[in-house]
Specification:
single chain; about 210 residues; alpha/beta; eight-stranded parallel β-barrel; 10 helices; about 40% helix; binds orotidine-5'-monophosphate
Length: about 210
């Protein structure tokens, strides 16, 4: 399923049970453009949760942050795609051979620079080189909403073709809309939605703020 920008936000569904995942998605789906499923949900349920979430008619991004040798990375991406994922998130620091192998199996987003403070220890200095690799093989990159100035720089490095999805909004400190104003296409929000007292209302408000930023 294609990823289209209508709300500007992607739901990070890092909850621990199938019931909670379905409940949150039922509430938030109309206000998000994709659902990102990662290890917390898949390891606490199983891979079939991806197929189950397809009924909400939103693209599914499997956030497996693949960081392995090429053949294993490719098999992880094949498994995610086989389960119904439309995109898989892959690390870029492992090198072009891994990114290329993964891109043979599915559409991918490449993590260029992460949102947490520790990303400055190692990743940030190589982010522009990772973007060069992503330009050849990926649908988009992941760049930090917590550092909008880096989104601007990584947008300049990536050109207009790569989609930028950006985590770090609300719970990690960034404000909704800042990453989009800096050049991101979508903002990823997890706890700000699934941890809200009223997830539906939160998603609706975030979507309104994100839309006003583009
Ligand atoms: P919240 O902080 O709860 O909004 O969740 C952020 C989501 O984005 C989580 O699913 C993280 O795994 C993911 N994420 C980051 O927070 N930082 C990154 O640098 C990259 C990701 C990611 O690849 O999605």
């Amino acid at each position: 399923m294609a990823l289209k920008r209508e709300n500007g936000i992607i739901l990070a569904l890092d909850v621990d049970t199938r019931e909670k995942a379905l409940e949150i998605t039922r509430e938030a789906a109309e206000f998000v453009d994709a659902i990102k499923v990662g290890y917390p949900l898949v390891l606490n349920t199983d891979l079939s949760i991806i197929g189950e979430l397809k009924k909400f008619q939103k693209p599914i991004i499997a956030d497996f942050k693949v960081a392995d040798i090429p053949i294993v990375g490719q098999r992880i991406c094949e498994a995610a795609k086989g389960a119904g994922a439309d995109f898989v998130i892959v690390h870029g620091f492992v090198g072009e051979d891994v990114v290329k192998a993964c891109s043979n199996a599915s559409k991918i987003f490449v993590v260029a620079e992460m949102s947490h403070p520790g990303a400055l220890d190692f990743m940030a200095k190589d982010a522009e080189s990772i973007v060069e690799i992503a330009r050849k093989h990926a649908f988009g990159i992941v760049a930090p909403a917590t550092r909008p100035e880096r989104i601007r720089e990584l947008r300049a490095a990536s050109g207009a073709d790569l989609k930028i999805i950006s985590p770090g909004v609300k719970a990690q400190g960034a404000s909704v809309g800042d990453a989009i104003r800096a050049g991101a296409d979508f903002e990823i929000i997890g706890r700000g939605i699934y941890g809200a007292r009223e997830p539906k209302k939160a998603a609706e408000e975030f979507s309104k703020s994100a839309r006003s930023a583009y």
